[in-house]
Amino acid sequence: MAAASYEEALRRLLAHEGGYTNDAADPGGPTNFGITIADYRAYMKPDASAADVKAMRVDEAKRIYRSRYWDAQRCDDLPTGVDYAVLDYGVNSGIGRSGRVLRRALTLADDSSIVNDAVIATAREADPRALIVAICDERLTFLQSLKTWAVFGKGWGRRVADVKAGALDMAAAHPAPLAPSAKPAGVVAAVLAAIQAMFRR
Question: How much is the pTM?
């Protein structure tokens, strides 16, 4: 289960986010640890100012990441590595987009961004490495289409490459178990083979 990878995924994410920024070219506005002023107001302090965002504690940021991004996208239920790729995409581009891209990568309808039971079941049956690559490649293509690519593109591209490599490392270190639907079929096949061998004797 991917629940155990939350701390590693968050550690990797925070390594990219850094501290306080308030770049006029960034639509997120005042941001700290990757948490925008809008999210800080929604989850911590409704009337928060830029100064409040600047004074944000890392434990506050972690609580927001857990609720706003990790839990909202059911990352505990996704394969290890895929969870990190989805988390990081959701933080940068919104969980509406990351949820739809996850569905699209799984060849499911992307008319919703909700990560439901059908999405989880399909993700568990997919090759996690191929899924990570598909998500990250789409993410890079999307970012390159934005008008702010000229300003932030170098850093964005480096981050996507790092996320892809990190997610693939996580997937390799924690291979997904055999999909439940595949286990009975394997058992039945083994039993049938044993029976057939007995009759051939």
Answer: 0.81
